[in-house]
């Protein structure tokens, strides 16, 4: 599994979430993504995957709550929680989330989403079910 060299690098600007990314075949990279740069399908997949990761181990921990708060603050709290509500309404099952993932086609967005998800999972220890989702994304999105 890829290793993330640093935890969340902090808040970049009001509408960005920046992470130092892990070593991949693309080499070490830093990427900043504006949530508005994601199309509607990417935004929905992003929020659905966050919900899936957070719910996969059966509990919403303090570190996860803190991490989601940091993400929400960095991308814009209203927008983030609106996306989370939309994902809850439109993606009722894990299969719905997995189908939505197919709409994320840009490699840099795939890598960014994966990294955010890994940071969330890692903040309280990666559970087996979280790891299964992350490994599925690595395989599906060819992130090796």
Notes on the structure:
The protein is mainly alpha-helical and 144 residues long. It has helices spanning 40-56, 62-75, 77-90, 94-101, 107-122, 128-140, and strands at 16-20, 30-34. Helix 1 (40-56) packs across helix 4 (94-101). Mean pLDDT is 79; it is low at 1-29.
Classify the secondary structure makeup into a structural class. mainly alpha
Portion of residues in beta strands equals 5-15%
The number of E-state strands comes to: 2
Q: What is the helical fraction, as a range of percent?
A: 55-70%
Radius of gyration: 14 Å
Feature tags:
mainly alpha; 6 helices; 144 residues; disordered N terminus; single chain
Briefly summarize what is shown.
Helices cover 57% and strands 7% of the residues. It has helices at 40-56, 62-75, 77-90, 94-101, 107-122, 128-140; strands spanning 16-20, 30-34. Strands 1-2 form a two-stranded antiparallel sheet.
